[in-house]
Amino acid sequence: MSGGEGAGPDYHSLEQAAQWFALLGDDTVTETQRRAWRRWLNASPDHRRAWQYVEAVGRRFARLRDGDAALSDGTLQRARQQRLSRRRALKGLAVLAGTGLLAGAGWRYTPLPSLARAWRADYRTPVGQRRALTLEDGTRLWLNTDSAVNLDYDRQRRRLTLVRGQVLVDTGRDPRPLDLITGDGELRPLGTRFDVRQADRGSRLSVYQGAVRVRTARGGEERRVPAGRQVRFDGERIGPTGPADPSAEAWTHGLLVAEERPLGELVEELARYRHGHLGVAPEVAGLPVMGTYPLDDTDRALAMLERALPIRVRRVLPWWVTLEPAAP
Amino acid sequence: MDTTESIADLYTDHHGWLQRLLRRRLGCSETAADLAQDAFLRLLARPRRFDSPAGARAYLSRMARGMCVDLWRRREIEQAWLAALAEQPEPLAPSAEDRVAVIETLYRVDAMLRRLPEKVARAFLMAQLHGQGYKAIGAALGVSERTVKKYMARAMLECALLEVRLQREEGGDAAPLAAPADDGAGR
To answer: Range of A140's domain?
Structure first.
């Protein structure tokens, strides 16, 4: 290449080159303008060097244009959208999500009574649906798939009971204290926004802004969990405090975000949004998954996984799907 | 030879903690090992002198942070591409090499466009990917042709600035990936 490398073009020449590029890019460009551009180009080595960079950028785009332009466009727009929604999602909230990690916890829901309670609950969502509500005190709730919540407000206090599933709470301004009760314990939000999920074997609380006080249902253990931290707990005990997972609240936007998460865990999560059985073969359950998956269309999420990983989606029966190693 | 030796020393002193740092960040020891290796390869390609172990440490952890961000963004693009592919009515399955090349290009292009306002990026893509004229772009975005031209200049300036940086990082001699085929003819 000609010219002193490392020196790079000066900003002013780059700016001019970009302006020439904009002028030449229109179909109304005249021969006179083209000649003027050539004069500019030949006027100085700085100009020529700057123009090389404009051409290099042009080549990158040309490569995309020669391939599948629509696909490239779709990719870039999607990446942009994801960034936007992530930025919005991270504004601050607390997540309490149930996990299967507290094996051996003494207390557990048996599915049947849980189902019966859910049917009588004040608000509930069926599998695969999410719902947003605003309560009389301005508190906003987002119910995740297969979830149910009871309300109990009186003059002194506000009480929400998570009967099953997961809820994100954005507390309204109100002098009365607000408590959220789950099968595993009580939460008193000291911040503004938090999200709760309970599963059969315990719960997880992640706090993104403010703080939440946890108190276990039977052990009576208490802890204040500050922003950016998370704990797992069951009816007896609270586990160690660790860093909060920033992707855990993405469900409010209909997304499941995985950052190096084992496939088995991801599938367990996806299964919450579908009827029927969704299984994963042990050979592939440990594959790390990275990416963002739609919760509103789990079939598409599965198709995406199938493309990204050496697996195939096997539909044994319409309601029975398993993920298996791809045929060699 | 002198530089290779100092690289060897740096490697002995710093490889362990760097890999641990990366593993903590990425949660995957294989990727962490790869990135740690890459970090030293980069140092080997462009040797630097450090005035103290603390200086080397600061430099390497800065580099590690950058590498994690790159990796994450690259994967973000890959996932976006997969999602866009899944949405195509008749997806043609690109070969593995094509896929790697196109994702690499998309990653670079996305890095160029991400700093631009929505409309500017949109206008630039309409012109560069779909070959649309300024008039059509202006009509689609509800702005004048003159504004579209301004958008083009602004977008190209941002892109070119990043291109300068990229080529410098790649060692100065690197023309972007593909051979500059028929571009640049006639001057």
So the answer is: 91-243
